Amino acid sequence: MLPPLTAPEGPPPHGLLAPAELTPELWREAGRRLLAKMVSEFSYEGLLAPRPEDPESPDIPFHRRAYRLTLAAGEGETVPEREAVPGERETAPGPETTPRRETTPEPEADPAPDAAPEPGAAPEPSAALLFHAARSAYGHWEIDPASLRLDAIGTGAPHDPAADPSARPAPLPATDPLDFLVRARHILGLDGATLGHLLRELNATLAADARLLHTAVTAAELADLDYARLEGHQTGHPWIVLNKGRLGFGACDAARWAPESRVEARLPWLAVRTHLATYRGVPGLDTPEQLYAAELPPAVRESFDAVLTARGLDPADYLYLPVHPWQWDSTVLPLHAAGVAAGDLVPLPSDGVRRLPQQSIRTFLNLDDPTRHTVKLPLSILNTLVWRGLPTRRTLAAPAVTAWVQSVRDQDPFLREECRVVLLGEVASVAVRHPFYDTLPEVPYQYKELLGAIWREPLAPLLDADERARTLASLLHVDHEGRAFVAELVARSGLAPRDWLRRLFGALLPPLLHFLYRHGTVFSPHGENAIVVFDARDVPTRLAVKDFVDDVNLSGRSLPEHEDMPPEVRDTLLTEDPSFLPQFIHSGLFVGVFRYLAPLCRAQLGVPDEDFWGLVRAEILAYQTRFPELKERYELFELLGPEIERLCLNRNRLHLDGYRDRAERPHAAVDGVVANPLHVGAFRPREAWGRETGDSAERDRLATGTSAGSPSGAGMPDADRSHDRTGPVNGAAGAVGAAS
Question: Is 437 in the same domain as 513?
């Protein structure tokens, strides 16, 4: 049985919150998992340098190997340099080359002054972390959490050969990422301020992970949940280590408002005078009256008006918007106190609607009527690299961006009729400017994102009667019994794993590729923005996408498709050099999701990595075969080259930005390059693979994207692949990806 939606824990008689999930067992297990993730992601980004325990042991891709990571060098010892990854090179430090990426130099060889030991202090004891890991696509580290051991002797300082070997302490299980971060602070190059805030974020993330473990259910039970409730069981950003830091929230706030708490909310509303508040809407919602008629029952609207008239105020002078209670208490009321005193902001009661926070924390789905809009509200908390407010200019531009993106879809028969891609539009917005902060470009950006709301189209009315939807991130979930959610869905579908993956890639890739290649426009299809639509058998059928104003990017080179773009849209959406535009698909989808999905498919579905990535490549080649007239665009927006730049999301926090305030939102750091598993030669030749996966001809065909019996490099998909989600369609020109 699934547990009911939990209520926030009230304080016990002594008045202190005592969360039930904070037990030694759950804390230890949460720590073990997060420690493995920390070492994996920091090593992927080149922040740590694990070395093989036995340098002579064979380095076989996708096979486990014993590693040692030196944490603190003892007297006379040195920390080894990072092990090179095949296909990876370092980029020299340089100026920022695009609006969206920041190239960061490596930290100095010596620790920052405030991170270094005090002069004359005794050297810290040598220590090392031992573990088993396999290396896979993009240089990923697959670390077995159960193998983590802490060797207090570390690098093996010289000792008396005559001493009894049994006297040496045996390495102990390592389950504490807090202890690890403290021990590794020098090799990570952390300054004191950054370390202090990191430990705080790490504690908050661990507490949230313990709560998820405490309320965990099986993959089978998760598969029966609807879209809104499934979100509360997700574990957060797979790449960012401190993914639930939520700086600004206290423990009671997290228990009340975090998605893993799964607590329903009834949001209060606010009236704001129109000299501070501005409304925007798509055609059909051009005026706030049209939005309120769709969202607010007449009695609720009348009650709002009555609050104003009782104070001698005219409702026609105000705009209405929901407000997050935490934001009102912690940010809006303190910083807009003058406006409240003047009657510019007037608190209103709740609309009575039950809503549930989603993974983004600030987005709420309507539980009482899923056909009504989703609402997105600002939260002045620092989480996963940025403050989670709503920038005024982009909030106002959101409906215009929605109208343009949807018009591109509606005027393109491939996107509209074959892919049937769902674009969940941000159809209305209210932005409230602050009378001082919004006039000061030099102040931290968090103070210019304080108050507003965005209404997004609901997903439910856009699905067919036999369809259901889940975020792409859900496919990475592994339950407390070790079963992957994707394995549960494949089992329910009745399809062979490779056939199910073909359907998944056929649902996701064609619309994303078509927007990129045909329209010079790219989404950031990470695990929360990309939503997979499934049929009644849990077979992937099509794609839904959200968050346009923040995550749609354009080619910086002028393209004919952009000539009629409205000026407001052109001025709002960020542009990139064409060579970098494919990075959004690589980093958002391939590195940010498939890097983790491929090992799950190998371990639980029996699909080797070369087959997994071969199927992805085959889908791209099938699209390119379908549209040969776009050949120049395939070269302009290269997805299949031998290497890609390595984006480093954790470096932002550790080295680039730390916790400092800045006037603009930060962008992902770039450091070096990694081999592209979609390149034609990525999986050939490797002697070990013949022992792993059986039929070498089938592996070579998948690796190159050629069909059986066709010349190498012909680029045709295999003959039995199906793009139609209800039945097979032969050949590359078949209907590609049904989408909602």
Answer: no
CATH number of the domain at 553, please: 1.10.510.40
Report if residue 98 sits inside a domain.
Answer: yes
pLDDT band at 11 (very low <50, low <70, confident <90, very high): low
Maximum CA pair distance of the chain? 92
DSSP 591: I
Contact status, residue 66 vs residue 130, Cβ threshold 8 Å: yes
Tens of pLDDT, residues 137-185: 999 999 999 999 999 874 444 444 555 656 667 899 999 999 999 999 9
Q: What is the CATH number of the domain that holds 49?
A: 3.30.310.280
Residues 193 and 311 in one domain: no
86 touches 675 (CB < 8 A): yes
Query: Are 303 and 192 members of one domain?
Result: no
- Rounded-to-integer distance, Cα 290 and Cα 401, Å: 19
**503 touches 734 (CB < 8 A):** no
CA distances to 48, 150, 154, 189, 609 from 143, in Å: 14, 14, 19, 23, 16
DSSP state letters, 501-560? HHHHHHHHHHHHHHHHHHHSEEE---TTTEEEEE-TTS-EEEEEE--HHHHEEEESS--G
- Residue 720's pLDDT is 35
User: 522 lies in a domain?
Assistant: yes
Both ends of the chain: CA-CA distance in Å? 31
Identify the three-state secondary structure at position 97.
Answer: coil
Q: How many domains does the chain have?
A: 3
Give the residue numbers spanning the domain of 108: 24-159+167-215
Tell me the pLDDT tens digit for each residue of 697-722: 444 444 444 433 333 333 333 333 33
Q: Are 520 and 377 in contact (CB under 8 A)?
A: no
Percent of residues in the chain assigned helix, strand, coil, to nearest 5: 40, 20, 45
